[in-house]
Amino acid sequence: MAKITFILGGARSGKSTFALELAKKYKDVAFIATCQGRDLEMRKRIKAHQLSRPKHWQTFEESKEIIRALEKINSRCPCIIIDCLTLLVSNLILSGASHDLITEKIKHVFKRLNTFKGRAIIVSNEVGLGIVPRTKLGRDFRDIAGRINQLTAANSDEVFFLVSGIPAKIK
User: Annotated catalytic, 49?
Assistant: First the structure.
């Protein structure tokens, strides 16, 4: 069973940087990226993230089907990073997936990780600290992201919350 580390925090709180630091002690790392470069600004962000990772790490770009990426990763790989759940949830919602389907997909990820012998580092945004979104889509996103974060925290061995680049271990 994998040792699962969940990293949570606000936008630009240092989550991804902290995840990379935790993973750099491993020679081989599989990085599952969920972001889609839908516009120029996002493509620039993706490029910056790519450049921040060691070149020898394997990268799997998978915006909706994390299981597909996990199946491609060698079982001897000592570390997997999934960055990030929030974008995964957003991609699934925008493709028409229901809350129940999204929850089932995440539960399936944990079943798969239970067969993994290394470390899994999962990154997500905490979306419940701000105002109530104005639109139904925004509220639906916040609600399912919050539930997925709770599910992930419950299935993780340790949880860190980042504030201004400072990690606080909360589990």
Answer: yes
